[in-house]
Design a protein that fits this description.
Strand content: 5-15%
Strand order of the largest sheet: 1-3-2
Number of strands: 3
Number of domains: 1
CATH class: Alpha Beta
Number of helices: 5
Radius of gyration: 14 Å
CATH architecture: 2-Layer Sandwich
CATH topology: Zincin-like
Length: about 110
């Protein structure tokens, strides 16, 4: 397990979000991306909660933002270097953003995320 300062980890998450291709990043609306410094739910590195774009209808309005949580302690527990943390944060962010776009866990695994 590696220790990363909370501020540094938050910057890694921000960098991962900023690195999304513009054609995807521009489509992300009404989503709060949060860093949870604790371990999070067992077995999860991140979690998307909300209504995926593919499930939204014309009645989708006035709702609270969707939420993507990235679990710092869970990610740091499986990494042995800062470079590994950076890569795992990137992979986790992309995975959870994939859920926002309506991509299933099975399909994300097939795609390598």
């Amino acid at each position: 397990m590696i220790t990363v300062a909370p501020e540094a980890f938050e910057q890694m998450v921000a960098t991962a979000m900023d690195s999304l291709p513009p054609q995807f990043g521009d489509l992300i609306k009404n989503v709060a991306v949060l860093v949870e410094h604790g371990p999070g739910p067992r077995g999860l590195l991140g979690l998307y909660e909300g209504v995926p774009l593919t499930s939204r209808t014309t009645g989708y309005a006035g709702v609270l933002p969707d939420r993507i949580a990235i679990y710092q302690q869970a990610i740091c527990a499986i990494c042995s270097s800062e470079a590994e943390v950076i890569e795992q944060v990137r992979r986790t962010v992309i995975h959870e953003v994939g859920h926002y776009f309506g991509i299933s866990d099975k399909r994300l695994r097939e795609l390598g995320w």
